[in-house]
Amino acid sequence: MPVQLVIQPEPSKEDIKVIYNGLFAYNTEAYGTPEQRPFVVLLRDDDGGETVGGLHSIYAYGWLYISMLFIPGSLRNQGYGTKLLREAETFAREQNCKGVWVDTFSFQAPGFYEKAGYEPFGELTDFPPGHRRIFYRKMLR
Prior knowledge:
The chain is an alpha+beta fold.
């Protein structure tokens, strides 16, 4: 089947879906269907129960990936980040995960993760320019 290479700066949702579904099918054939599901721990205000921050993660292939952890400025340095992380780790242990992994920028929270027992396992330098993107993991078994 002849094909052509097309540069598409603004791809359609359908184009992205073809790529995603193709890779998912390939991975499923190679490994089997992964048990993959999201997990969140939310920070909600006492007044209206509105979400003001929290942690979003994805459980897959025996690991929990923390994709986002956000605490509003007014609530930082009060232990909420540690509580969110502990809840995620508890969930990961309940799922019998090997570990938890996360990435952060050098201007965000590397010290926070290191203090919580996470060890760096990789980094991208100058991403974004002048900073680093650091990948951390914490083994649970």
